[in-house]
Amino acid sequence: MKKKLKISYNAPVVLTFVLICLVVLVIDGLTMGKSTNLLFMTYHSSLANPLTYIRFFTHALGHSGWSHFINNAAYLLLLGPMLEEKHGSQTLLEIIAITALVTGLVNYIFFPSVGLCGASGVVFAFIILASFTGFKDGEIPLTFILVAIIYIGQQVIEGITISDNISNMAHIVGGAVGAILGYVLNRKPKYSR
Quick check: 109 and 57 in contact, CB under 8 A? Predict the structure, then answer.
């Protein structure tokens, strides 16, 4: 007897994150961008406004359009399930939240005239985290070095030489968060006897 194939919700945090980003993008279209400006983009606003603190996290859910969303969703869906299986759903949710908070704060403090939205920082954290697969304590994986040089190096060069609407800062900061968390999560605890 053949076993029936079924679709599994194999990476709940990643799938839910991408679905929420999709819903936010649809709502953005219905509200002609007002919902994203209000809730899903971080920018220099008053610290007395409670939404300022919420947007430090929720900006990762907003996207500037379909192309922006599709590019990020592709990477999230490609890398996320592997990372969620390796580190667990709770840890991956914490990685997403930490990356969103750090990129939001850096943008708020150092780029007061720039609005930031999108999951690009999370994507770059995932890219760097994925390069830590096979990490052994006391060693630096060559994959990590190459990925850092290629992805982060490209962002530094583009940030200096190209004037576009892409936040290279979010990519670099997301990559840095991924590198730090990748090292911390993959380090083996030393046991004393």
Answer: no
